[in-house]
Amino acid sequence: MFRNVPPGIQCAITVHVQTLDKSTTNDRIRSLFKDLLFNDLDMAEKIFRYGKTKNWLHPVPRYEIIRS
Fold first, then answer.
1. For the whole model, what pTM was predicted?
2. What percent of the chain has pLDDT over 70?
């Protein structure tokens, strides 16, 4: 279940950034989406730290140069 949460948060962050970019005329809506964006970024940071301590995140593949 944990591996489904971070991609959802990343998707929400993307949507908030796109909406923040489009809302140039209404200050109230722009402020609302800015707050949502920063809240999501803070939550993502906490979730990634927790997942890292529990070793629940997918390992990042290591790429090395193969020399012959």
1. 0.71
2. 100
